[in-house]
Amino acid sequence: MTVYFIGAGPGAADLITVRGARTLASCGVCLYAGSLVPRELLAECPPDARLIDTARLDLDAITAEVVRAHEEGHDVARLHSGDPSVFSAVAEQIRRLDSAGVPYEIVPGVPAFAAAAAALKRELTVPTVGQTVILTRIAQQATPMPDGEDLATLGRSGALLVLHLGARYVDRIVSELVPHYGADCPAAVVAMASRPEELVLRGTLEDIASQVKAAGVTRTAVILVGRVLAATGFRDSHLYSPERDRHVC
Prior knowledge:
Blueprint: E1 3-7, H1 18-24, E2 29-32, E3 50-53, H2 59-72, E4 76-80, H3 90-100, E5 104-107, H4 112-120, E6 133-136, H5 151-155, E7 160-164, H6 170-181, E8 186-191, E9 199-204, H7 208-215, E10 221-225
Parallel strand pairs: 1-4, 1-5, 2-3, 2-4, 6-7
Antiparallel strand pairs: 7-10, 8-9, 8-10
Helix pairs in contact: 2-3
């Protein structure tokens, strides 16, 4: 048997990849994050599949369920929101599976920041304006940030910042970024990206916090800060330039 870590996408059930849906349909056991994964996706599981909501399970309990399925000879779908490569806690799970000798594969999904960019109708890398995107979060009650990855340090780059898990602390985020980006720097918040209840807030560092609080946004949101969010008079990229030699591989 194999454990498949499947990225379920940012929220809309139809944003799971074709590979992810096919893999989900082939697994006799599905462990899913009930607070984040859309329930409609569970309809892709086999009718007799064992469905386990991991919302109230700790790492030991999750590992035990996977090992149990392994011993019973079942393939396992470990369904995560977004993409398993960022803020998914997959690293600690596969470390346990390595120790237990349980094989696994990772099936990528659509990350939340990509869904947020789509909602904003924006490219996050704009020629001559910004070519770097930093995905990060802030330290609060959860796992602390490593040295050198605080907002003040990251903000000195001037790159587009995409912050996960920070809507509750938007005031702190703004206060730490204004010295580096300026109060007039474009900012946006996308809550519940790709879902029917999706909410998009646009503004600057000066007013985005008040918008977030007025809208009552506290979770399942992505905060974006950077000049590319309002870029207009930028130069076309070299990719489609008529000056590019298209005979060179």
